[in-house]
Amino acid sequence: MRFRFSWLAVGVCLVVHPNVNLDLAQAANILAIFPFHYGSSFLVVRPLIKTLLERGHNVTFITPEGMPHDIEGVRHIRIHKLNKRMLEMIESDEMFRFLVNKWMESTLAATMFFNMCQDILSDDGVQRMLKDEREHFDLILMDASNLDALYGLVEYYNATLIGLTSISVNWYTEELAGNPAPSIYEPISQIGYSRDHSILSRIFNWMHIIEEKLLEQLLVLPAQLQVFKKFFGYSEQKFYELRNRFSVILVNNHFSVGRVRSNVPNLIEVGGLHLSEPPEPCDEELQKFMEEAQNGVIYFSMGQDIMVKFLPENLQQTLVKSFAKLEQRIVWKNEFFSMPNVSENIYVIEKAPQRHILAHPKMKLFITNGGLLSVMEAVDSGVPMLGLPIFFDQFGNLRWGQSAGMAEVLDINKLREENLTNTIRELIDNPKYTMRAKKMSDIFKDRPMSPLDTAVWWMEYALRNRDISHIRLNAEEIPLFVYYRIDGILTFFLRFGMVAASLIFLGLIFLRTCVPADLINRMYLNFSIK
Asked: For residue 248, how far is the Cα from the chain centroid?
């Protein structure tokens, strides 16, 4: 009897305890691939990986060495060559050639994606995994970018494919999700993209995106197909078929911090996913500096990847001189601890606890380059922004902030001390910017589910439902004539033409029968003379 009650007690504990995962039978083997050597993508994916582990799933994580830090319970496969390639690119200044023109940008991108896929698939750890017959993966989670050669893993393991992108949605993401509806508002490259809404600009932007699609077909995909055939031996037909295998794509986007868009069912907005983790701790010295700021605090950061040493000397001095004129205290994320002419109201810090700083009650303004995660953190904290965009999606992110009434944007190439100072004071002294920032924060947070819960639910939905034809629109399976309803358009114009022709015909008969011929001739002569 006592033995029976012991088992009953164990059963009650399993039901009641919130941390016990009862769905152990549904635990999946997940392969996550995120090869890009920048921190923002890992800030987005890390909380998702941790939660999947808590829910009983097994995760293998393919990343560069040291990014991110080891996650307990995860099997890490570190690709040393990815770090080496990035170091070579920085030392050769190839990263800055991205800003020259779109063709140069696409050429370098195609080379970078080619090297990434080749380095991953040729890595000793990955090769051991592929040759081990005991290895099996139910789901592959990967960055939804131009890593097409890696889709061979989906066929190799007969796995479900899910994408996750830490940047804004663009036409390429739409294509992978099976929604090729034309859009002129979501380019990949910002070089040469027009930002006004005139008819000519719209035509130009349409050509801009058509050019990007052409570059993808000519440069990126052929290189990926080469790696795909080399390592997997599958056909070209299989290559293009696998590009349509995405069950779900999780996008770091939310309608409250960008353009309202029509999403297909398998394109899921999880903007703010990285905010599910606790903010970084703040040391006592920085905390005291902000607490004692009688006129408030301004935070200045150009993101994780843009270091101050890359900014021109005259621009650095413009910033220093402008900050020295302000009544507020400035927290400056800056790797130079001994910059010349730094005033007493500036606190220089190499690694700033950004979310903690932005959430401080005395925070007045965030000066930023406009990275998507930084913009979301400013919105989450209800802090106005001054934008100094440099490249990629930063222009679009800050343009949204400006249209939402919580930001102003300046051209960093034309930055002047007086203009910078006046803009900062306007953003701080005019209460409309803070009011709009607080309003946008409320809208951003008002959701039925948290971004993390949304992402996990859809991942497990894709695991439960391998056949995703009911949520995915594959335009390749629909004739162009039907997809764009050309039959309906032609029918409309045919009917309109028949009615118009009938009216003209009846009008001519009426003129001939009811109007005297000499009157018609005189009208014709008068019209000819005029």
From this structure: 15
Question: Are 379 and 313 spatial neighbours (Cβ–Cβ below 8 Å)?
Answer: no
Residue with tokens 């946008």: 440
> What's the average model confidence in pLDDT over 152-166?
93
Is residue 40 pLDDT above 70, yes or no? Answer: yes
49, 33 Cβ separation under 8 angstroms: no
Distances (CA, A) of 304 to 251, 337, 346: 21, 17, 20
Q: How far apart are CA 353 and CA 333, in angstroms?
A: 9
Task: Give the residue-averaged pLDDT of 145-156.
Answer: 93
The whole-angstrom separation of Cα 162 and Cα 181 is: 21
Instruction: Give residue-wise pLDDT tens across range 214-254.
Output: 888 888 999 999 999 999 999 999 999 998 889 999 999 88
Euclidean distance between CA atoms 26 and 218, whole angstroms: 43
Please indicate, yes or no, if residue 178 is contained in any of the structural domains.
yes
Pair (299, 184) in one structural domain: no
- Domain extent for 511: 481-529
> Domain for residue 6, yes or no?
no
Q: Are residues 259 and 121 in the same domain?
A: yes
Cross-strand bridge partners of residue 21: none
Contact 162, 174 (CB under 8 A): no
Establish if 148 belongs to a structural domain: yes
Task: List the one residue out of 94, 95, 32, 93 whose CA is nearest residue 68.
Answer: 32
Q: What is the pLDDT of residues 255-307, one digit of tens each?
A: 888 777 777 888 899 999 999 999 888 889 999 999 999 999 999 998 775 55
Give the number of other CB atoms < 10 A from CB of residue 405.
Answer: 15
Q: Residue 428 maps to which CATH number? A: 3.40.50.2000
Residues 6 or more apart whose CB falls under 8 angstroms from that of 160 comprise 138, 139, 140, 247, 462, 463, 466
> CA 77, 82, 88: angle at the middle one, nearest 5?
160
- pLDDT tens digits along 475-490: 655 555 555 556 666 7
Q: What is the arithmetic mean of pLDDT over 393-413?
A: 88
User: Is 339 within 8 Å of 360 (Cβ atoms)?
Assistant: no
Residue 201 resides in a domain:
yes
How many independent structural domains does the chain possess?
Answer: 3
**Residue 220: both structure tokens together:** 């990126």
DSSP string across 100-130: T-HHHHHHHHHHHHHHHHHHHHHSHHHHHHH
Q: Hunting for tokens 């009434």 — which residue is that?
A: 405
pLDDT in tens, 201-210: 777 777 778 8
Closest residue by Cα to residue 367 from 347, 342, 386, 352: 386
Indicate the average pLDDT of the chain: 82
Percentage of the chain modeled with pLDDT above 90: 42
Instruction: Supply the pTM of this predicted model.
Output: 0.80
Long-range contacts of 51-58 (CB under 8 A, 24+ apart): 51/452, 51/456, 52/456, 52/459, 54/19, 54/21, 55/21, 55/23, 55/27, 55/456, 55/460, 56/21, 56/23, 56/24, 56/26, 56/27, 57/27, 57/28, 57/29, 57/30, 58/27, 58/28, 58/29, 58/30
Angle between helix axes 102-122 and 80-91 (nearest 10 degrees) is 150
Q: How far is 195 from 197, CA to CA, in rounded Å?
A: 7
Same domain, 379 and 458: no
